[in-house]
Amino acid sequence: MKITVYYDKRKLEYTTEKCEKLSDILISLGADIPLNCGGIGKCGKCAVSAKGCLSPITPAEKELFGDQNEANLRLACLTYAEGDCEVSVQNGGEVFGTADFSAELGKNPLTGNRSCYAAVIDIGTTTVAYLLYKMPEGELVKSAVHKNSQSVFGADVVSRISYAESNAGNGVKTLQKRICDQIDNDLNDFGYPVDFRVVTGNTAMLHFYRGLSVNSLAKAPFGVNEYFGAANGEVCVPRCISAFVGADVTCGIISSGMLIDNCSMLIDIGTNGEIVLKNGSEFSCCSASAGPAFEGASISNGVASVNGAICSVFNVGSSFYYKTIGGEKPCGICGSGLIDAAASMLKADIIDKDGYLERDFYIGDSGISISPADIRAVQIAKAAIRAAIETICPDLSKVQNFYISGSFGSYLNIDNAILIGLFPREMRGKVSLCGNTAAAGASMMLLDKAQFEKGNEIARSAKTIALASNEVFYEKYIRYLSF
For the chain, is the Cβ count within 10 Å smaller at the N or the C terminus? Predict the structure, then answer.
């Protein structure tokens, strides 16, 4: 049988003798189909238009698309090709923008004095950021940010680890090939020969990149492969701090500016909210499982920080207004917009302190709505982050500076974050929005070997605070579920 796929303005063909799931077919053809829930039919974001000889529509699809499904929408993760059919995929091959960063050349770069091109690569769960340097001058030549192609195997770290474990060893190999092929192709598009790489990211992403088992990340006793923290050949990977606090945080410590403070905090908000407290010369870290709400993955109209994402929301009385990234037509709402929306809905009494929302709420004329489940996801995420902040530092008054990293922080309204209870009042007037501190720190390490060694030393000595069995964290988490 023949499956014809229309994707990214291309016509692709796939032949098989057996019934196969549409999502598997699309992934094998290189189509970027999102399986945010890990392919279990819950998120609805792998919807495609399909017709022909297909498996019967499932109850989950009926509930999602209704009885009048004129567009022939199907969930790729639940639908099987049982004969000749056609599949149309929307929004393929999206590029997320460019990175903005500069670093100073040290006396002893990791590449030595040789002439070459070196790439800094930050493998995030949602995106992959690239910075290309001409060495030994340390001149930034090009930069880019692309969607992480592994997202077809799950929008968050937990989903990808689950995929890796459920495929008896082949899962890790599949994820490794996916990200390595993407990196090679993206670097080739730069048009320069890349001889050296500094690769950073969270612990799971680096395990996938190196094809290492993630069993130690999924169950106790949790641990990190000792490979990290060394320059092996032409690839350098900074040291991870723990199973849940990765090399991206190590790099963030180096670049954020917190090293010159007596007491400061670095907060990286994602599916796992990673928090570092520097108190004198000591570093303490923790990771709070916040869920992917602030990355858009578990939100009905959620997207990453892409062009067209609603990044800011405000209200005047009962009228709601919004801004999008790049000023483009709204395509969804990202984390900062979600926080603003929740805060504005609180101000307008559309939701109360308990977060009750009777029906979906539309943001102005954007066509983008917030559902009751979205509000609940915000409550869960912000409660975890807030509880982690106060668990790692009971006395926040002594913290001089709070550094917020990641694309999430680029558009964040601190007052609204405080209003909904994500951040404590003690942070007001002390916050620095730092952007991609992982890529910044990795660049500093590339340009100055002393920074690489300093990061590894900090990662080795940092104390990790486990929150899963921490009674203080649990008590605060329950308290901060309300707005």
Answer: N
Report the distance separating Cα 62 and Cα 412, nearest Å. Answer: 37
Task: Specify burial of residue 379 (Cβ count, 10 A radius: 0-12, 13-18, 19+).
Answer: buried
| Largest distance between two CA atoms of the chain | 68
Q: What pLDDT does 325 receive?
A: 86
Q: Mind giving me the DSSP string for 126-151?
A: SEEEEEEEEETTTEEEEEEEEE-GGG
Q: Where does residue 155 rank: exposed (0-12), middle (13-18), buried (19+ CB within 10 A)? A: buried
Residue pair 333/296 in contact by the 8 Å Cβ criterion: yes
Quickly tell me which residue has 């959620």 as its tokens: 302
Contact 452, 445 (CB under 8 A): yes
Cα separation of the two ends of the chain: 54
Q: 276-303: per-residue pLDDT in tens?
A: 999 999 999 999 988 778 877 779 999 8
At residue 210, the 3 state secondary structure works out as: helix
pLDDT for the residue 219: 57
* Residue reference for tokens 């390595």: 180
CA–CA separation, 381 vs 298, rounded Å? 11
Give 3-state DSSP helix, strand, coil % of the chain, rounded to 5.
35, 25, 40
Dist CA 480 CA 483 (whole Å) = 7
Beta strands in 290-414 (DSSP E): 309-316, 319-324, 332-333, 361-362, 369-370, 401-405
- The pLDDT of residue 6: 86
Integer Cα distance of 240 and 328 in angstroms: 37
* Low-confidence residues in the chain, pLDDT < 50: 92-98, 220-221, 227
pTM: 0.78
293: nearest Cα among 327, 252, 322, 334: 334
Which of 182, 168, 158, 162 shows the shortest CA–CA distance to 27? 182
With beta carbons less than 8 A apart as the criterion, state whether 27 and 152 touch: yes
Tokens of 265: 């905090």
